[in-house]
Amino acid sequence: MKAPARTTSGRLLNRSMATLLVAVALLAALPATLAILWTSFEARGRAEAEVTANLVTLTRSLAAVQETINRQALGMLETLRATRAVAQRDLPAANRLFTTVLADRPELSNVFLTDAGGRVIASGLPPFLGQDLSDRKYFRDAAASKRPGIGDFIFGRTTGKPILVYAIPLLDGNGDLAGVLGLSYFLDGYERFVAGLAMPPHVRVTLLDPSGRRMVAYPPSPVYPLGQPAFPPIWEHVRDAAADAVTFTSPRPTGQEALFSSLRLRQFPDAPPYLTIILSSARDEAFAEADLLLRRGLTLAVVAGLLALALARLAGRAAIGRGIESLDQAAAALAGGDLSARAAVDGGAAEVRRLGESFNAMADTIEIRQHELADAAKAMEKLRGQLSNILESMPSAIIGLDAAGRVTHLNAQAATLFGLPRETVIGREAALAVPFLAGHMDAMEDALRQRRSLLLECMPLRRGEDDRLMNMLFYPLVANGAEGVVIRLDDVTERERLRELMIQTEKMMSVGGLAAGMAHEINNPLGSILQAAQVVELQLDPALPANQEAARQLGLDLAVVRAYLEARKVLKFLAGIREAGLRAASIVSSMLEFSRQSDSRHVQADLRAMADKSLSLAESDYDLKKRYDFRHISIERDYPEEPVSVSCAPTEIEQVLLNLFKNAAHALAGVAQEGKVPTIAVRVRSLPEAGEIVVADNGPGMDEATRARVFEPFFTTKPAGEGTGLGLSVSYFIIVNNHGGSIRMDAEPGAGTRCTITLPRREPS
After folding, report:
1. In terms of pTM, does the model score above 0.70?
2. Matching PROSITE patterns, A to Z (predicted)?
3. Domain limits for position 230
């Protein structure tokens, strides 16, 4: 009887243990070997794809650099366009600003400003002034599209470096071209950037302008001269490509086969390319590593087959595998956010147990650190809230700006001061969002550039019909890498008015005692002079019997004596003595007003009626008719319909108003010759607890030094002999001392003068 046929597996199992182990090892190694071979070929393919992908990534990185340069250049131009020097065409200031920018930014070749015709009117480089740029591409593009333009690639005249020019249009109020603001950017920054990249030595970088000329070629080589056309087959392939980004294989000018990656850059989606970036890599060098990987893979496959014979240690590997599996599961849970995940450390080899213990210790540290970070975040949020509350509670207006002049913070006081909602201000340029700041951007730039605080005192702010004075303090932000400026505004209007009133009151008090003493000392001899002049006139009067009797006893004809005196103008001189004496007495009487309170009885009177009566007196005043022709001055009345009653001595208030009308008439002398109609405006207003009257003219005004002294006794701007300098001083004492009111003089050179009088409705108790 024949034995049953044995199967292959049966025959194999009947072999010796060594054979079985070898067979098992070889069978176990076969899949690994095949996998290694497949992985090696796949790795080579991935390496080739990676070389291509890296080339494309480098191309996009350089494109990102160019886009960053574009944003920086255009951002710098936008910042310069917002400065006062450029916006107001202050060419000397613009030249200084451009020179400072060139000194601070070595990557710039020049900064310039043209007029609408393309002629350079301001430049950081003086030799560039006056040049005609109307035929340059960047000027034509900016002028035609009203959008930023980029010029053709050029070489610097003095540096020999490649340059790219950026320009933005400047428009007038009608949207028409007023000029172009531009800057020239050195392209050798690309060489420094590329040199800093860890690129393979076989990679070459080339930048081409729209016509295919080389702007940058790295590494430098005489085979690739700057300013020359690119290799025609390569340029034609890039130029005629349907897409802006392409990769292809083509020979280099040296004949070496290379892989190319190109990207065309456009300023706007609908604009033609202004620059093309091309990166190339020699195939034999680029894929050398991939070929090496393949050879290593084949070698590894052979080695793996040999090592498969050592599978006797499968048990140990299994133990290690169990420990690694536990560790992998714990790591995955920890990565998913489970901070309590830990690896099992009760089995496996000692090394695996130690690894698990180290992992668990690391997880403990991460959990503790996470809790600490959460606590720190809460504390930071609380601190941020406290700082916000402090800023919102401050009585000062606080405005935060970044280095580009955009508003980053506006506290409640600032929003109330300017009447601006925060959501429409935050993120906008300060000069546009808060018009009051437009005239102070130079101060902000100085504070930021000099890294120090800067104080501007008593800056005028117009709010409706009210003029306020603001102190502006600029604090530069230079800590923790942040750049910007914090502006603090404080309303000092009332403080300045009080200070001015205190100074004026001290002047008046110091003069009051002097005026009283001088008046009493002058009155005595003045009375004697007036009395003696009157006695002489009486004793020369021919109608008096005593004079006739004395002349008869002396044998004189009194009429002849009188005729002689008149012929020799003695009587006229006596009249002049009396007139001068009376004028001096009037001055002395005015001086006495400084040393005593008025005892005039106060009554309720209408400011409108007192203003009209004073105007009537001014119109009939002979001196005003003779010297200033008051009748030809235009009078503008702005009265309310209802009476504005105040407690006052009407004659004193009328005296004050008449003084103001006389001063206004004097100031308006000669205004008609300047082509203006001489005008005095009288405005009466009713305030809650007082009445207000304003007298304004459109005369030449006065400077600040003169305005500060107008209420000083004996100070006058009139020629000698035409004024005593006491009119406004007396007016000041009538309003302030006698009536408890206020009087304020506002004036600017060339903008007329305005006097504001405020009188209380009730007599102070």
Report:
1. no
2. HAMP (PS50885), HIS_KIN (PS50109), PAS (PS50112)
3. 200-286
